[in-house]
Amino acid sequence: MFYEPGRTTHGLPRDPFKSCVVPRPIGWISTVSRENVHNLAPFSQFQNLTFDPPYVMFAANQTTRGRRKDTVVNTEATGEFVWNMATYELREAVNKSAEEVPPEVDEFEISGVTKEPSRLVKPCRVAESPIHFECLYHQTIRLPGNGTMGTVDIVIGRVIGIHIKEEMIGADGRIDILKIRPIARLGYHDYTSVESTFQMIIPGNDPRRLAGMEGSAQF
Ligand SMILES: Cc1cc2nc3c(=O)[nH]c(=O)nc-3n(C[C@H](O)[C@H](O)[C@H](O)COP(=O)(O)O)c2cc1C
Which atom of ligand 1 is found nearest the CA of 183? Predict the structure, then answer.
């Protein structure tokens, strides 16, 4: 099949686009408002952009009422956010934190997770999550879109602090991803979690390229 988004119909009962870019890691983002209300929300339009220094982004569409999401408002107002890793064990809390509630509601409370202070920024971390990035706001790129929710704010932040729970680091010094079991979004209302891994090394053994694959640009 072939279709041109916005121009011709895909002819399917549901829009297939989000099911094509999978799996998408979840940016479970905590912020705090100027009024000191703690906010938490998941964004599957999330990625690391680069690694040395590390930058991440999340893309927040407008609300169903055509307003900017609280996460974006708070990040721009305070200049800080925290990324928390979403795991299979925390899946219900992740889902609850997506409820659209007024900015004066503490979303750690409605999600039933514990606030843990960050070291370098004001937004709290989700204590139950195994990995956190403390981030400084860098820039917002706004893309125009269709309908109330179409417009999207792409928020970029620089990672200035990384927490990894000791028990999630294996004897070989690597993060034990199978123990953590991160979740990721598929299309529709479907999710997946990491339950297997495999390894491949780029042929040629160029040490600079291999270092880059592992996350270092300073060879
Ligand atoms: C797993 C998951 C992923 C989501 N991904 C996005 C996303 O990428 N962009 C977005 O705008 N909303 C996304 N949402 C919806 C937001 O989490 C929801 O609108 C939330 O209320 C925003 O909260 P805030 O207003 O406190 O920022 C997602 C929801 C779930 C459950």
Answer: 1
